[in-house]
Amino acid sequence: MYLGAWGASRFPQGTQMSYTDVTAAVLHSLCDLYRHIAVRGDAGLTVNFHLDYEDPNVRIVSQRTDEAKVTVTPKERSNVLIRIPRWTPRESVKITACDKPISLTMIGDFAFVPRTDLSEQAEIVVCYGLPVRTTIDTINDAEYRYQWRGDDIIGVPCT
């Protein structure tokens, strides 16, 4: 038995071995993702990932039902850039700041909320659609169908 490691195999459902270098790479990736959920830079506060999170700069609360709702509360008044997933229809994106709707201004993949639209400890709420789609992966001549809502797998229908 191998505890505390992730395995790797050329077959999709299994192996009897685990590899600590794979475990270390996975752990490194998770730590890097966590360090970059929200970062402060010259442009202001940038929110890269929609995960529940809090640090000295920001509090983020993410909720999902039929649509996504991300509440960003900067702890210091500054410009805020919030990444909007490319797969969501742009017309579904709605933003409010201080309980008032604001127009969507995009800089690349990021919604831009200027500090002039914010008060101290202002809440920014971003809502966007979670489109449903199906993808098919073929591994070793076997088809795997995945149903998605946004970037969450919601089903793997049996065929």
Shape: globular
Please indicate the percent range of residues in DSSP E strands (runs of 2 or more).
35-45%
Summarize the helix and strand pattern as letters.
HEEEEEEEEEEEEEE
- Compute the average pLDDT: 87
- Please write the CATH class name of the largest domain: Mainly Beta
Q: How many H/I helical runs? A: 1
The first-to-last residue Cα distance is 32 Å
What is the radius of gyration computed over CA atoms, rounded to a whole number of angstroms? Answer: 19 Å
| Helix percent band | 10-25%
CATH topology of the largest domain: Immunoglobulin-like
CATH architecture of the largest domain: Sandwich
The side-by-side strand order for the widest beta sheet comes to: 3-4-5-11-7-8
Number of domains: 2
Structure classification: mainly beta
Given as residue ranges, the uncertain stretches (5+ residues, pLDDT < 50) are none
The strand count comes to 14
Description:
- The chain has 159 residues and is mainly beta.
- The protein has one helix spanning 20-35, and strands spanning 38-41, 44-47, 53-54, 58-64, 67-74, 80-83, 94-97, 100-102, 106-107, 110-113, 124-129, 132-139, 142-149, 152-155.
- The chain has two domains: 1-34; 36-129, Immunoglobulin-like (Sandwich), CATH 2.60.40.
- It contains one helix and 14 strands; from the N terminus they run αββββββββββββββ.
- The chain has a six-stranded antiparallel beta sheet with strand order 3-4-5-11-7-8, with no helix packed on it. Strands 1-2-6-10-9 form a five-stranded mixed beta sheet, with no helix packed on it.
- The chain is globular.
- The mean pLDDT is 87.
